[in-house]
Amino acid sequence: MIFHSLEIGRLANKIAVKEQINKSDRDHSLLGGLLHDCGKLILAANLSDDYISTLEIMNSENIGFTEAENKVFGTTHAEVGGALLGIWGLPDPVVEAVTFHHTPELAIHNEFSPLMAVHVANCLFHKKNNGKKLNENSNINLDCLTQLKMKNRIPNWQALLN
Questions:
Q1: How far apart are the C-alpha atoms of 97 and 78, rounded to whole Å?
Q2: Cβ pair 38, 99 in contact under 8 A
Q3: Which of 12, 26, 35, 57 is deepest in the core (most CB within 10 A)?
């Protein structure tokens, strides 16, 4: 998981730089990517039996990880991680990127943000590492990108993976 978080942080930052967003938001993209799955650590460390049940349900019912988390915990690792980071007082764009990295449609933005950088980075990384097989983590929210008029930027971002 540490390697994955480092890669998402690095890629989210590269995407933010490519989109020429301000320095603060580039930094928030990096930090949001690094911390995007911190809720998994919180759940696994504090509710290990339930966390194992989540993995078992995911495999036995052939459902996505966040769907299995919702069945077991009534919430997701993204929401747990975002809540903790909010309590700790991290910047709102970082908290938002962690909380909504699987569901960017739940946040309202009129421009490219650290949330979208982390969301796209996470999806592209999962798509690349799952042999281009789509799963819940590799589905970029095209509606959000269309609304931002950035859907055509995906190939540019994919090129950053190399």
A1: 9
A2: no
A3: 12
- CB of 140 closer than 8 Å to CB of 105: no
**Domain range holding 66?**
2-159
Reading the chain (162 residues) residue by residue, the pLDDT tens digits are: 668 999 999 999 999 999 999 999 999 999 999 999 999 999 999 998 998 999 999 889 988 888 999 999 999 999 999 999 999 999 999 999 999 999 999 998 888 999 999 999 999 998 887 764 444 556 899 999 999 999 999 999 999 987
Of 28, 29, 48, 32, the residue nearest 40 (C-alpha): 48
How far is it, in rounded angstroms, from Cα 42 to Cα 101?
17
Distance CA 36, CA 1 (A): 11
CA distance 133 to 139: 10
Number of domains in the chain: 1
H/E stretch holding 88 reads none
User: How far apart (Å, rounded) are the C-alpha atoms in residues 136 and 139?
Assistant: 6
